[in-house]
Amino acid sequence: MDDLLNEFLTETGESIDVVDVELVKLEQDPNNKEVLDNIFRLVHTIKGTCGFLGLPRLESVAHSAENVLGKFRDGDLQVTEDSVTVILESLDRIKEILAGLEATEEEPEGDDTDLIGRLDAIAEGKDEVSAAPEPDVVEGEIIEPVLGRSLKAGEVSLEELEAVFNAAPGPEEAEAAPDPSPEPEASEISGSDSGGSLYDRIGGDDTLAVASHLIASRLGNHSDLGKFFDGTEVDLRKGKFLGLMLAIFKDDLDAADAVGRQLLTVTGFGEAHFDKLLEVIKAALTECQVSADTVDEAVMSFELVREAVITASKVLAESKPNQKGKASGGTASDSGPKEKRKVAQSIRVSVDLLEDLMNMVSELVLTRNQLLQITRGIDNSELAVPLQRLSQCTTELQENVMKTRMQPIGNAWAKLPRIVRDLTVELDKKIELEMVGADTELDRQVLELIKDPLTHMVRNSADHGVETPAERIAVGKREVGTIVLNAYHEGGHIIIEIKDDGRGISPSKLAPKIIEKGLATEGELAGMTDAQIQKFIFHAGFSTAEKITSVSGRGVGMDVVRSNIEKIGGTIDMVSIEGKGSTFQIKIPLTLAIVAGLIVKAQDERYAIPQISVLELVRASDNSEHKIEQIKDSPVLRLRNRLLPLVYLNEILGFMSREEIDAREDADDFIVVAQVGPFTFGIVVDQVFDTEEIVVKPVAPILKDIGVYSGNTILGDGSVIMILDPNGIASLVNAGLGDSEQSEEAEEEQSRKSLSDDIESMLVFTAGDDNPKAVPLALVARLEEIDISEIEVSDGRNMVQYRGSLMPLIMADPRMKLQESGRQPVLVFTDREFTMGLAVDEIRDIVEDEVHIKLASAKDGVVGSAVINEKATEIIDVTYYLGLAFPDWLKSGDTTENSAPSDGTQLLLVDDSDFFRNMLRPVLTVAGYDVVTVSSAAAALALMEDGHSFDMIISDIEMPDMNGIEFAKAVRASDKWATMPMVALSSLASERDIDRGHEAGFNDYIAKFDKETLLRSLSQQFKIKGDAA
Amino acid sequence: MNDLVVRNDLSVVSTGSQDFVTIVVAGQMLGIPVLAVHDVLNAQNITSIPLAPDWVSGVLNLRGRIVTAINLRRRLDLPPIEDGKKSMSVVVEYNEEPYSLQIDSVGEVLSLDDQLFERNPVTLDQRWRDVSRGIYRLEGELLPILDVNRLLAFENNGKAA
Q1: What is the CATH classification number for the domain harbouring B122?
Q2: Confidence of residue A537 (pLDDT cuts 50, 70, 90)
Q3: Which domain holds residue B117?
Q4: With pLDDT > 90 as the criterion, what percentage of chain A qualifies?
Q5: Following CA atoms A954, A959, A961, A964 in sequence, which dihedral angle do they give, to the nearest 10 degrees?
Q6: How many domains, in total, are found in chain A?
Q7: I want to staple A812 with a disulfide (CB 3.0 to 4.6 A). Which of A423, A767, A940, A949 is the partner?
Q8: Does the distance separating the beta carbons of B64 and A706 come in below 8 Å?
Q9: Model confidence over A110-122: pLDDT tens digits?
Q10: Is A82 within a domain?
């Protein structure tokens, strides 16, 4: 693309953004002259440049907008919301055209007459009395009669041009000037079309000649400036000015600079003098009938040489005083202090170049680190000093290069006032947007990436957060809502807060949606805190607006924001108080290229974890304060009264299986507590080294699919290591994570469920005959198909090698036979170290149904019969088969008569083992009891608090958190359940244990696997109870 | 490469020649176009990458660049290298990413006449056909030419391999 056009696009884009913001300011404060001037100037510049580049469509839109702004400025028009809206619209149109221009390098086709019409209507319609002398025609004297309309800025009417020729004092003199300027050409002068450079619009060589003559002659007599110029001939002066103006107006900056330096022969020319010089120039140009806008622009362009002129004068001052001594003390002092003010110097550098620079610096940092590492081992090396110096330079270089990439966050905010303003109009709300810390700087790459999420969040706050004025007044708030954006640095990160004082997020409104989307069940929600429920807005596909507006709620929600922020290694958190408002906090690294990484080890290999996600480190071993414990299969750590779910890095990376990890002796682990979004979890590693500054390099494309790495890097010692991605790890283990997080809720849920209904998942299969048999699905660990050829016979029993050990294979029915060949379906049951396979003929179905066991069965291995899928189905007794597989599993074999008490006797079964709960429940149900199961003593006590009552409690002894003994004491100490009979179930059945149980308040103490004794004891207890009553 | 194929198809006798670096993997000599080879390395420290495809042996540091090491034997379904022997590597580039192909040894640079070139025989093993550009008939030996682009086009055949 044309460099000029490119520059224009960049600049205009920036100006438009500023105008956007300023206009909103203006609307709030219509009398702010400064803001208005600024807007006018910017729009004017846009228009001017468009004309210069020959972009008629852009120009006409900008022109009409400028007209309206001009009227504002002159006080002819009041600033109203409507007119501002139309101007904003025209800015949008300009942006559209710019976008088209950027894509095709040509102005897109389109019709702007409607917009222009409206702008003109505003400019004229409300200003009929004064019948509009257009502000951009010089002094309002000349109205173009031929065109029948007012002139656009930059246009010069033919009459004007003639006037220039006629009225200008002595154009002949100008031509006589010893200047090598080309002959004036008619075509150039008659440039009444809007296109063309400043040079053309001013009127070409002729006008300039006239102007330079005017300037030169006036300067000679000027009261202040005369002394600087009277040393030179008028003609020479004229030549200098003509050359200067030609160079400036033709955009030949180098030449302008050179001419500017030669302009003066006398020292002491200061800022103030230059300003005066500009006035002279302005006056001269105006006299030459150049339009006011063009004059302004021309004068502004003189700023380009301001420095050159002044510096040149200073140089003269430094070199000449001794030789000539011409500079008078007076002039020197009067220009002294002001001269020192430096004009800020800047150049445009392409972003690519900066990126390259940053990459190279990153490499340099790495190499430096490597060198340092090497010399660390060498004493008294002569390298030490230069290396120190190199190190220092590198650090400084790194900092400075980083700085070049830093941009104030305000750049990302620039569009927000406009967005909020549009929203207030559209939604009929009143919102103030407050921005604090707009000058907080961060890497431009990061800045680009957070722009969209930020915009989205502010939209959300305006749309969903802040209430309508009526609602606000009704709840006693100020009519105008506030959204505060706040950015600040904190420990190598930048924190951005988006705070509104709106209605906050209502958990009760979220709840039905969460359930509707299937993100959680009602039961799970009931157990959550408000904050937990509110965080569901970060889940995919969530939008809380009651109705979908054009503003937000197009199905993209906070989940996208969250994932975008996490993509750049940031985190997002939220605090929301219903009725008070919400605060979102985004934490992002200052730069993406260099981050602090914690180096950890797993299986002899080192990995880096980005420091931003690391909260703390904990060391855990069997005999230390912190110990890794297991809930079912999930490892957890008790950390300050919270359970922290853990993942083993060794397991994630496939180095070790869980069994191997569990089998380690004297495990001494380090736990890196990491935070990903709202989740906190621990990554168990073998060892933790130090923190290093690492330069993140992307992984090769073939490794992109592996979610656990976010990149790789070269360490100080030259080795390459992988950078782990906590987000990836979290999502990899998310299922497990969710489980342990919700385990408590799930338990409560289960206890509630067990009170309300008896829905069970049953696995239906056949074995031996066609009659369906069923087993509670919860008891089945896995379903397998085992190759017949793998089945071995040992000790007269069928065995199969399964997961590294021998698993006995039991027939589900004595009549059935193993298949001749092929694969045999097997149900695998597991409890602690016992794993058994139950061979069946066919797995039929999994049925979720209310299961009422109707008939107790005398048949071995059958608990009873129930109607499942409208068919009588035998429910098998897994304990029987476990007994077959492992003789030491069950102790009793013979069946005894058990007098089942009357129906409806309620038992509470407390056991932390799923297996036992699921196994005992059918057994007890068959015996005629109504069973409620809970998985912890705490859950049981909760039921007590809730006012439930039971006829008896059966409790396990070994349970985590609160064991059976403590539980019994607690029950006995309570007032509600103090007299309730309690039976202890335990695998610890020594004399001492039994005594302890009795002491604690258990009425009976039974070995865990003894089904018959349990039933006998139960009926006994009820008898005692009945007798006592 | 297209030129070659066209010439071959039209059976036009050409007098052009191409330069190849020969490498040896599990006793088999292979050719790589000399311009595709950026570097030849001795055994390097390679950081393994858990969970990566098995033919990715890891990443290594080549003068500050991170290079992905490809185990050519595994990629070509050849037996693993004998114990105690060390691999060499040739560094090639694909899609501007450097890859280091682990091989047994590097031979010489040969300038081969186009007339010696022949397309893959149809009976060639599929895995080899996927990565071989064609074969040069050398005296006493055949030299399959490794097509680096196809070898490293994981997006297409990475899963199949």
Answers
A1: 2.40.50.180
A2: confident
A3: 2-154
A4: 1
A5: 40
A6: 7
A7: A767
A8: no
A9: 778 888 888 888 8
A10: yes
Q: Which residue of B61, B68, B93, B101 to mutate against A (max A Cβ within 10 Å)?
A: B61
Contacts of B22 (CB under 8 A, 6+ apart): B29, B30, B31, B106, B107, B108, B109, B110, B143
CB contact under 8 Å between B59 and A697, yes or no, is: no
The whole-angstrom separation of Cα B106 and Cα B21 is: 8
- Are A177 and A315 in a shared domain? yes
Q: Examine residue B113 and state whether it is found in any structural domain, yes or no.
A: yes
Answer whether A879's CB lies under 8 Å from A921's CB: no
**C-alpha distance from B161 to closest chain A C-alpha (Å):** 13
Q: Is A614 in the same domain as A711?
A: yes
Residue A218 CA, distance from chain mean position: 63
CB contact under 8 A, B64 and A722: no
Single-letter residue type at A843 = I
Asked if residue A625 and residue A585 are part of one domain, the reply reads: no
> Does B158 reach chain A within 8 Å, measured CB to CB?
yes
Residue A732 confidence (pLDDT): 72
CB contact under 8 A, A703 and B95: no
List residues bridging with A984 in a β-sheet. Answer: A955, A1005
Give the total number of structural domains in chain B: 1
* Domain presence at residue A748: no
CATH number of the domain that residue A956 is part of? 3.40.50.2300
Evaluate whether residue B159 is within a structural domain: no
pLDDT in tens, B13-29: 456 788 899 998 888 88
Backbone torsions φ then ψ of B160, nearest 5 degrees: -65, -40
Residues A203 and A303 in one domain: yes
Segment A864-889, tens digit of pLDDT: 777 777 778 888 877 777 777 776 65
Question: Does residue A142 form part of some domain?
Answer: no
Q: Which domain holds residue A581?
A: 409-589
| Residue A838 domain-assigned (yes or no) | yes
Domain boundary among A77, A106, A132: A132
Which pair of structure tokens corresponds to residue A166?
Answer: 């006629």
Q: How far is B122 from chain A (nearest CA, A)?
A: 29
**Alpha-carbon torsion (A220, A225, A226, A228), positive or negative:** negative
What pLDDT does residue A58 have? 81
Token digits for A427? 């939604």
Average pLDDT, chain A: 73
Is B75 domain-assigned?
A: yes
Q: Residue A291: pLDDT above 90?
A: no
Which of B51, B54, B62, B67 should we substitute to test contact with A (largest number of A Cβ atoms within 10 Å)?
Answer: B51
**Taking 90 as the threshold, does the pLDDT of residue A600 lie above it?**
yes
Of the listed ranges A212-226, A238-252, A742-756, A949-963, the least confidently predicted one is: A742-756
Q: How near does any CA of chain A get to the CA of B7, in Å?
A: 34
Residue A459 sits in the same domain as residue A540? yes
User: 0.90 cut: is pTM over it?
Assistant: no
What integer is the mean pLDDT of A143-154?
Answer: 44
* Contact (CB<8Å) A653/B51: yes
The alpha carbon dihedral of A540, A434, A481, A551 has a sign of negative
Is B45 in CB contact (< 8 Å) with chain A? yes
Helix (H, G, I), strand (E, B) or coil at A214: helix
- Do residues A516 and A424 share a domain? yes
Choose the weakest-confidence range: A125-139, A636-650, A789-803, A993-1007: A125-139
Residues A942 and A1001 in one domain: yes
Mean pLDDT of A757-778: 75
Give the gap in angstroms from C-alpha A351 to the nearest C-alpha of chain B.
21
Tell me if B66 and A697 make a contact (CB, 8 A cut-off): yes
Which residue from B minimizes the CA distance to A696?
B66
